[in-house]
Write a structure and sequence with these properties.
There is one protein chain. By secondary structure, this protein is mostly helical. It contains 18 helices and 14 strands. The strands form six sheets. It has a three-stranded antiparallel β-sheet, with no helix packed on it. A three-stranded antiparallel β-sheet has the order 7-6-9, with no helix packed on it. A hairpin with a 4-residue loop joins β11 and β12. It is elongated and about 100 Å long. One of its GO terms (molecular function) is symporter activity. It is found in: Apical cell membrane; Cell membrane; Membrane. It is a multi-pass membrane protein. Its main location: membrane.
Length: 650
């Protein structure tokens, strides 16, 4: 047989059978999340009619919530419901949120006049905000639980399989992301509706909602195979009380007359168990190591903003990051890491993460070099002290134009001329058709106009006067701007489009998107060795009762990284985009050096072994206490017997 399954005690070739349900669940859930997110800004902009700034703000607020709510999910899982029930309950909330989003996009609900646009936008806005809130609560709440729950399925002797699981888990994240970001925009491009046909946002949101339901069903099917660890009380409350008492007790005994203790948490020994104190020490040790990590996500998440905007000034269209992830993860696990190990190099998890941060910095250096080349191809736009004058000769003969303080120049028939200067007078020396227009160039922060980017390689325009129709087709390049001229001698008929001419105002982008591949390759390599390793590291170094909490701490670094992007961008106020890329790269290199020093002094732990030692000590102490109690009881009973004997003799 080509494929042999080694089934033995619910295992497949050494892997617990239960993890396959978890992996499929993660794939479907990520498809649902990234699929919905792929068209979310377009939904805000063109359905709810938000402006660009409001749409962007709400989008980033939603993403930030998705990475803040894991803390809540981790507390609920580790302290109250357990990981299994938390995933079930919050997945239901998640699915409801996706359904509400799909319903909010049905324009026919409030389209009473059947013109294709909703008449009561308030209802659609309320529904969409409620849906997004439920989605943020659901996806964020289950984020730290699913990865940690998958790790719980492995026994102590399956450390290698557990490491492979986290790589496969990350593959599923990017596999779902790749498919959904391709499929849902296609679904949105379809036209649907009851009374009028419009862009099909309900389908684009409905398919991710269906995938979330599938994810929930698949996870429930594997219920009987899971190893479910029970929650150990309100652990977060105990942790906070323990830390608070240690700080307060240390402050009380701040005098030099009191003997020092090995760790400041040891000042909690008077009130709290030594096992809990040891577990908190382990968590604090890892959380301290997390302090520099948000800077990696500051750079990484800009591939969805700054790098996307950079691509709009280039020629081409393709998706590369998820494809590279799907390729590089197995290559790293099967080829690179084993090869490094054979060379005798100790490539520890923290060293991998350091390399990942350095690769991300190099990716931004590559992006800066690409931006420098792009800037050479971009058109020059008026400065703040200038205006742009566009002269169109719509006639069939050349025109000679004389402007103040300028030499006369000729505008050929069916052409356009641009001048970037404030002009006060115009004198036409030959008859013809002409038009003047002052263009208010609406620019982004870094100077390229919003209206220049036509995302169609070919477009067909329909010209009609009610009785006649004329179709005109033309190829367009990315980043180009055209003026189409319909002459006065235009005649309806089969050859009507031949008299229509197009004037190229701005040339198409000439620097191809393929030059972005090196920066995407570097950032993806950095992601593989940083993020996959970080997930496994967070799990392996966490105490048994705080694994979801530490996973939430890992995800919290992503949220902090996104806030840093906004802070640095606002404070720096750098006009040149390439300079901003260099700034972020420099910051990450500096953080990378700091992290490498911290990693050098970090001592890896085996939480299970440490917990076992303290439990053994506690057990020995309990045994000693019981033996002492028995001795006391025997002593009392002996004396009572002596008293009874004396009384009998008397």
């Amino acid at each position: 047989m080509a494929l042999i399954l080694c089934l033995y005690e619910q295992e497949v070739c050494g892997y617990p059978l239960s993890i396959f349900f978890i992996v499929v669940n993660e794939f479907c859930e990520r498809f649902s999340y990234y699929g919905m997110r792929a068209v979310l800004v377009l939904y805000f902009r063109y359905f709810l009619r938000f402006d660009d700034d409001l749409a962007t703000s709400i989008y980033h607020t939603f993403v930030a919530l998705c990475y803040l709510t894991p803390i809540l999910g981790a507390i609920v899982a580790d302290s109250w419901l357990g990981k299994f029930k938390t995933i079930i309950y919050l997945s239901i909330v998640y699915a409801i949120g996706q359904v509400v989003m799909a319903v909010s996009a049905i324009h026919d609900i409030t389209d009473t006049d059947r013109d294709g646009t909703p008449d009561n936008l308030t209802l659609h806005i309320v529904l969409s905000m409620v849906g997004l809130l439920l989605i943020a609560l659901g996806t964020g709440g289950i984020k730290p639980c699913v990865a940690a729950f998958g790790g719980d399925q492995f026994q102590d002797h399956q450390a290698k399989q557990r490491s492979t699981f986290f790589s496969v888990f990350y593959l599923c994240i990017n596999g779902g992301s790749l498919l959904s970001t391709i499929i849902t925009p296609i679904l949105r491009g379809q036209e649907c509706g009851i009374h009028s046909q419009q862009k099909c946002y309900p389908l684009a949101f409905g398919v991710p909602a269906a995938l979330m339901v599938v994810a929930l069903v698949v996870f429930i099917i594997g219920s009987g195979m899971y190893h479910k660890t029970e929650p150990q009380g309100n652990i977060m409350l105990d942790v906070c009380k323990c830390i608070g008492f240690a700080i307060k007790n240390r402050f009380r005994h701040r005098s030099s007359s009191y003997p020092k203790r090995t760790h400041w948490m040891d000042w909690a020994e008077e009130k709290h168990e030594k096992l809990l104190i040891a577990q908190i020490k382990m968590v604090l040790k890892v959380l301290f190591l997390y302090i520099p990590l948000p800077m990696f996500w500051t750079l990484f998440d800009q591939k969805g903003s700054r790098w996307t905007l950079q691509a709009t000034t280039m020629d081409g269209n393709f998706t590369v990051n998820p494809i590279l992830i799907l390729t590089l993860v197995p290559i790293m696990d099967s080829v690179v890491y084993p090869l490094i190990k054979k060379c005798g190099l100790n490539f520890t998890p923290l060293r991998r993460m350091t390399v990942g941060m350095f690769l991300a910095a190099m990716a931004f250096v590559a992006a800066a070099l690409v931006q420098i080349q792009i800037d050479k191809t971009l058109p020059t736009f008026p400065s703040s002290s200038q205006s742009q004058l566009k002269l169109l000769n719509m006639g069939s003969i050349p025109l000679t134009v004389t402007l103040p303080n300028n030499d006369p120049f000729v505008i050929e028939a069916a052409t356009v001329n641009h001048l970037e200067e404030v002009l006060l007078g115009i004198h036409i020396t030959k008859p013809g058709y002409w038009q003047k227009s002052y263009t208010d160039v609406d620019t982004h922060k870094h100077g390229f106009p919003k209206h220049l980017f036509l995302l169609l390689s070919r477009a067909t325009f329909t010209i009609t006067n009610g009785a006649n129709t004329c179709k005109y087709s033309r190829e367009f390049g990315f980043g180009s701007s055209y003026t189409l001229l319909i002459p006065s001698h235009f005649v309806w008929g089969p050859t009507c489009s031949e008299s229509i001419s197009g004037v190229e105002d701005i040339q198409p982008n000439s620097f191809h998107m393929g030059w972005q591949i090196p920066q995407y390759f570097l950032i993806t390599c950095g992601e593989v060795v940083f993020s996959v390793t970080g997930l496994e590291f967070s799990y392996s170094q966490a105490p048994s009762n705080m694994k979801a909490v530490l996973q939430a701490g890992w995800l919290f670094t992503v949220a902090i990284g996104n806030f840093i992007v906004l802070i640095v961008a606002e404070i720096a106020q750098i006009e040149e985009q390439w300079a901003e890329f260099v700034l972020f790269a420099s910051l990450l290199v500096a953080v990378c050096v700091i992290f490498s020093i911290m990693a050098y002094f970090y001592t890896y732990m085996d939480p299970a072994e440490i917990e076992a030692q303290f439990r053994d000590k506690d057990g020995t102490e309990e045994s000693d206490k019981e033996e002492l109690q028995m001795q006391k009881k025997d002593f009392v009973d002996h004396h009572n017997d002596d008293d009874e004997a004396k009384q009998s003799k008397m």
